[in-house]
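Supplementary Note 3. Input sequence used for the single-chain structure prediction.
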Amino acid sequence: MGNIERSAKKKRRKRDIQRAVLTAVGTAGLLASIAVAPNAMRLLEWTGALSRLRYRTKTVLGRLKQKGEIEFIKEDGGTFVRLTKRGEKSLAMVQETMRITNHRPRKWDRRYRLVMFDVPEKRKRTRDLLRREMREVGFLRVQDSAWLYPYDCEEFVALLKADLHIGKDVLYAVVEEIDNDTWIRKHFDLPARDR
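The predicted structure, written as discrete structure tokens, is reproduced below.
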């Protein structure tokens, strides 16, 4: 595994941990910053994992606070974590990403979802982020700025456009038919075309 692959894997792991913490905070509404049962605390101390857990939790929470997705609240002698409006938007994106990657319909409606974009060169980082998000969800790149997905993903694309502030640069279309789509059907493991 090369350095670039290791670095990408490490970034993906950090992002996954942040998403998990964001989901936990969103689910709980208001979450104690270190909420571990007393027996589990003793076990963690015995294994030496407690200091790593506290460090990792503080680091992830610090990153989320820095991004403006959570805020700390002092209440009843304790410190709690709560989502901000920005955090709620990020959580909606995480939930929608999980929905389309984990819950594919049993039957395909025989339509493709085409996402085309023209993000200016001065926003190259945003364009790369858009590509990465679509690749991770499972979109197929058919041309440089044209990507396909066989299932409904309109909400995902709308949230992505809002999150990246690229609404006018992205088009979403539902396509009934694509010529020579055998390779696309094979990629997505879709049924063959009716004769």
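Confidence is low (pLDDT under 50) at residues 34-50. The radius of gyration is 21 Å.
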